[in-house]
Amino acid sequence: MRVDTLALEDFRNYRREEIAFSPEVNVICGENAQGKTNLLEAVYYLCGVCSFRSRGDKELIRFGEEQARLRASFEAEGREQELELTLRRNGRRQILLNGVRKKTAAELSGRLCAVLFCPEDMELVRGGPAERRRLMDLAISQLKPRYAAALSRQNRAYENKLRILRDWREKPSLLEVLDEFNDELARSGAELIWYRAAWCRRLAELAAPLHGEVSGRGEGLELRYQTVKTVEEPEKRRQSEIYEALLEHQKSHRQAELDSGLVLSGAMKDDILISINGSEARSFASQGQARTAALSIKLSEREIIRQSIGEYPLLLLDDVLSELDERRQDFVINRISGGQVLISACDGRQVSARTGGKVFEIENGTIKTT
Ligand SMILES: Nc1ncnc2c1ncn2[C@@H]1O[C@H](COP(=O)(O)OP(=O)(O)OP(=O)(O)O)[C@@H](O)[C@H]1O
Ligand SMILES: [Mg+2]
Fold first, then answer.
1. How far apart, in whole angstroms, are the C-alpha atoms of residue 131 and residue 120?
2. What is the reported pLDDT for 267?
3. What angle do CA 70, 72, 73 make, to 5 degrees?
4. Given this model, what pLDDT does residue 106 score?
5. Most CB contacts within 10 A, which of 6, 160, 271, 346?
6. What is the per-residue pLDDT for 109?
7. CATH superfamily of the domain spanning 1-113+314-370
C-alpha cells in the first residue's frame, strides 16, 4: 500500500502543489508553520475517515477560497487506483474513486489506511478517556466500514437523546421518542462494543511485548477494554447479548438521566485501562513510561492492520521523533521498514541522516524535492 502522487489545490496553506512520494521513507522538513502537518493531514484524509485535527471540512479549505481539491494515485488491495476529493465551503464533499462517485467516506474504508503518530499521542496514556476512544474510533473505522457507520449512528442518536433530556421539562411530548433513540444507542453501541473488545484484545497482545522490549527492563504493560458495567466479558459476547445488556443498563439509569439531563448510559463512556507493572498508568506512569506505552500502542495499531489486510498501512510520523530519546527513536526507526512512511520534522536533515529516504523541503506551502 502506498501513495505515489498527491496533487493539492487550495488545501490548507497549499495553493497548487504536486508531490511524488517514495514508496519507502519520505522525510518532510521545514520550519514551524510551513505546512508539514498539513501535508500529512492531506494524506490521512485520503484514507477516508476524516481529518485527524479538524472538526469539519471547511477548515481544510484555503482561506478565502470556495473549494479545495485533493487528487491522489495510490496502490492498495494490489491495484493502482485514483482518488479525487473536492471539499466545498458550502456543501457536501465530492468523492471520486477510480472515476466512480462515492456517497460517503465510509465507502472508502479499507482502500488506503494510515496510522498517524503525533505529539498529542503522548497523551494517550495520561490523558482522559476521550483520547483512548479516539484511538479506537480512528483505528477501527479504517479497518471496518461497518464500525464507522455505527459510530455515526451512535453520535446522531446521542445528540438527539441529549436534546430530549435537556428539553423534556418544557416539552414533555419529547419523551415519546426517547425510547426510539435509546434503542438506536443500544443497537449501534452493541456493534461498537463488539468491535472494540476484539480490537483491544489484539492491541493488548501486541503492545505488551513491544513495551517490554522498549522499556529495556521487561516492564509489563496491560491494556484492558472497559465498557458499560452490565456487559460482562464483552469479547465473548454476541452483539445481540451486548444489545440486551445495554438496554438493561439504560433502564436502571433512566430516572437519573431525566433528573440530570445527561446521557449516563452507553458506549460513549468507554475507555481502555492501561496499567504498567500492575499500577494504573494514567495516575502513576512516569513521563518516559507513558511515552513508551504510547509508542508500543501506536506500533501495535499498525501491526493489527498488517495482520488484518496483509500489508502495512502508511505510517505518518508527525514530529514525533524529536519527542523521543535516542533509544526510542532507534526502536521506531528499526521498525518502519516494510511499508511507506512519511516523517515530518523541523530538523529534517538530522532525521534523514538516520532514516534515509526522499527529502522534501516545505516552505510556506510550497514543496521542493532536494
Ligand atoms: N485553511 C487554511 N488556509 C490557509 N492557511 C492555513 C489553513 N489552515 C492552516 N493554515 C496555515 O498553515 C500553517 C500551519 O501549517 P502546519 O500545521 O502544517 O505547520 P507545520 O509545518 O506542521 O509547523 P510545526 O512545525 O509548527 O508543526 C499555519 O500558518 C496556518 O495558518
Ligand atoms: Mg506540525
1. 9
2. 97
3. 165
4. 63
5. 6
6. 53
7. P-loop containing nucleotide triphosphate hydrolases (3.40.50.300)
Low-confidence ranges of the chain (pLDDT < 70): 49-55, 105-106, 108-110
CA nearest to 116, candidates 273, 280, 344 = 344
Q: Are the C-beta atoms of residues 332 and 295 closer than 8 Å to each other?
A: yes
**Cα(361)–Cα(318) distance, integer angstroms:** 15
pLDDT digits (tens, 9 = 90+) for 160-213: 999 999 999 999 999 999 999 999 999 999 999 999 999 999 999 999 999 999
Predicted pLDDT at 50? 57
Using DSSP, state whether 80 is helix, strand or coil: strand
What is the pLDDT, as a whole number, of residue 54? 60
Q: Is 90 in the pocket of ligand 1 (CB under 6 A)?
A: no
Compute, in angstroms, the gap from residue 231 CA to the centroid of ligand 2: 40
CA distances to 55, 125, 283, 290, 345 from 323, rounded to whole Å, are 26, 15, 21, 12, 10
* All residues at 6 or more sequence positions from 241 whose CB lies less than 8 Å from its CB, including other chains: none
Kindly state the helix (H) or strand (E) to which residue 260 belongs, with its residue range: helix 239-260
* Contact of 11 with 68, CB cutoff 8 Å: yes
CA 150 distance to own-chain centroid: 15
| CATH number attached to the domain at 125-312 | 1.20.1050.90
| Distance (Å) from CA 366 to ligand 1 centroid | 12
Domain boundaries, the chain: 1-113+314-370, 125-312
| Ligand 1 pocket mutation pick from 34, 66, 70, 347 by most atoms within 8 angstroms of CB | 34
User: Which pTM value belongs to this model?
Assistant: 0.91
1-113+314-370 and 125-312 have identical folds: no
**How are beta strands 341-345 and 314-318 bridged, if at all?**
parallel
